[in-house]
Write a structure and sequence with these properties.
five-stranded antiparallel sheet; 17 strands; alpha+beta; binds ligand EPS; about 375 residues; four-stranded antiparallel sheet; Chorismate synthase, AroC fold
């Protein structure tokens, strides 16, 4: 089973991920991972922290002479900002300094609930781990997962479809266009006109001390028919993808395919009719299902739409209560992103890549890539003949 854990604080020494169940024989280079780490760091609207960090992965185990060995893969990313936090993030009891405690919880963050639940006087013990900095480790795991999928011609792209109410129009664009235009865009969007308006919205929000959320789309191309299962609630591919997306910091909603719009139109305009020719086999002319029917991939593109809330660390004061004095205060912060939707889209790719790789390896299971390829090819032959 492919699985991973991450560890590490936002201003701690490093982020760590241990990925278990990676098949042996997979080519893996640090550059495969560093490309995605860099993509995650980009985006108009990011704050000062991104000029401190230039995320690079180190592979500490599970790879020898450029190939995975089947042993757990350890990935680490150092936090450059740690140099400025040595005392504040010290693990030594003699460095305890109550004067630096954070006691003012930010609305919308894990601060208040986490501090009560974990019985912490210092909110920093919560916010360091709830921070979206952790997504760098998840992107590293996602890049490794993409390497697995790449062997089977499964690719994943993302595009930002809305920021702060400005919507991108991507209708009529094919996969390659969406990828190319989004990759060149500072906001990872495939609509250049909308991009200009999105930037203006971000500038305005910044001037007002505010933050902006938005939506992004993930497209998985090349997933074979039959990933996931209709037979049990916890085997359904859409359920797994939705959980993976909702686990990303600040994501508040997920749709597959037509999603919430299904509520507005009759069934005759929702369900994707089935056709057959000898050459093509079974095929569809529409993809409102977003590539998943009955909890299983149906071989069409898997389309996932996600919404990210505006970042809750604001320059504009929001009312809150100091946990030490119980007195109201108006929050003021020193440093924050205004908008991180383009970064979240890259994290979404990673989350989808891991889930698809995991369920793919369950279906075509083996300890080594060669045998998985044999299993996969024989299944593909079977599906072709049906
Ligand atoms: C974050 C706050 C900011 C972001 C951070 C997530 O960090 P800082 O408090 O150091 O300014 O920059 O995101 C990252 C560091 C990152 O790599 O994405 C938060 O509170 O979630």
């Amino acid at each position: 089973m492919l699985r991973y854990l991450t560890a590490g604080e936002s201003h701690g020494k490093q982020l760590t991920a241990i990925v278990d169940g990676v098949p042996a024989g997979l080519d893996l280079k640090v550059d495969d991972i560093n490309i995605d780490l860099k993509r995650r760091q980009g985006g108009y609207g990011r704050g000062g922290r991104m000029s401190i960090e230039t995320d690079k992965v180190q592979i500490l185990s599970g790879v020898r002479f450029g190939k995975t060995t089947g042993a757990p893969v350890t990935l680490i990313i150092e936090n450059k900002d740690y140099a400025n936090w040595l005392k504040k993030m010290s693990i030594l009891s003699e460095d305890l300094d109550k004067s630096i405690y954070v006691t003012k919880p930010r609305p919308g963050h894990a601060d208040l609930t986490g501090s009560i639940k974990y019985d912490q006087e210092d909110i920093r013990n919560i916010l360091e781990r709830s921070s979206a900095r952790e997504t760098a480790a998840r992107v590293a795991v996602g890049a490794l997962s993409k390497r697995i999928l790449d062997e089977f011609n499964i690719s994943i792209i993302s595009t930002v479809t809305q920021i702060g109410g400005v919507k991108a129009n991507i209708e009529g664009l094919n996969h390659a266009d969406i990828k190319r235009i989004s990759e060149e865009s500072e906001l990872r969007t495939a609509d250049n006109d909308a991009e200009a308006n999105m930037k203006a919205r971000i500038d305005k929000a910044k001037a007002n001390g505010d933050s902006l959320g938005g939506t992004f789309q993930i497209i998985v191309k090349g997933a074979p028919l039959g990933l996931g299962s209709h037979t049990q609630y916890d085997k359904k591919l859409d359920a797994k993808l939705a959980a993976a997306m909702m686990s990303i910091q600040a994501i508040k909603g997920v749709e597959i395919g037509l999603g919430f719009k299904c509520a507005e139109v009759p069934g005759s305009r929702v369900h994707d009719e089935i056709f057959y020719t000898k050459d093509k086999g079974y095929y569809r002319e529409t993809n409102n299902a977003g590539g998943i029917e009955g909890g299983m991939s149906n071989s069409e593109d898997i389309i996932i739409n996600c919404v990210m809330k505006p970042i809750p660390t604001l320059y504009t004061p929001l009312r809150s209560v100091d946990m030490r004095t119980k007195e109201p205060f108006e929050a003021a912060v020193e440093r924050s992103d205004v908008c991180a939707v383009p970064a979240a889209a890259v994290v979404g790719e990673a989350a989808a890549a891991f889930e698809i790789a995991k369920i793919f390896l369950e279906k075509f299971s083996s300890d080594n890539i060669k045998e998985i390829k044999r299993n996969y090819n024989s299944y593909k032959e079977y599906v072709k003949k049906v």
